[in-house]
# Entry
Amino acid sequence: MQALTWTIIAFFLGSLPFPVWIGKLFLHTDIRKYGDGAPGATNVARAGGRGLYIIAILLDAFKGAIPVWLAQLISDVHGWPLAAVAIAPVLGHAFSPFLKWRGGMAVATTFGVWLGLLGWVGPVLIGVGVGIMFAIQKNWVWASVCGMLIFLIFLITLRFPIHLAITNLCHTSIMTIRRYSYFTKWPELQPWLAKLGRKP
# Structure
């Protein structure tokens, strides 16, 4: 019952569209009119709120981290029940009832969840995976999704519990579903890698 309660709380917190609210309150605009049209922190910067971007991305991250932390700290939720709590904020961000069940990829929220699960190790390993993908190609959606798959390899190689690997796969699936249109064509390679494929 405690795990179910925390899962519901985590979904609710994850569904809070902080970047959209920040855009309306401080920038007097709908940030979804900018960039890729997503309700994420990046579009706060694109709408002109570069300073507010930091606040938005921190709020998006901590709405993922806090319920995962508290579920473990207060109710001693671990294992598979904790996996449900960890998936819920990302699901809430991607399918927010506050935005008519629309949302973003939940990249910042995913970082936050893994901060709550593994401490600094989680975000660092995800960052390494995303960084590797950005070094290869230019599309941030491909980098985020494939970076999560690289993170999955880290989890398996380092022999983390299986429920964490399943949590990763669920996060990756949610990201893919929210931005499936980006995967209809191959991403553009970074210049240094494209040159390697050219004939001398």
Summary: The CA atoms of residues 34 and 46 lie 6 Å apart. The mean pLDDT is 93. The two ends are 65 Å apart (CA to CA).
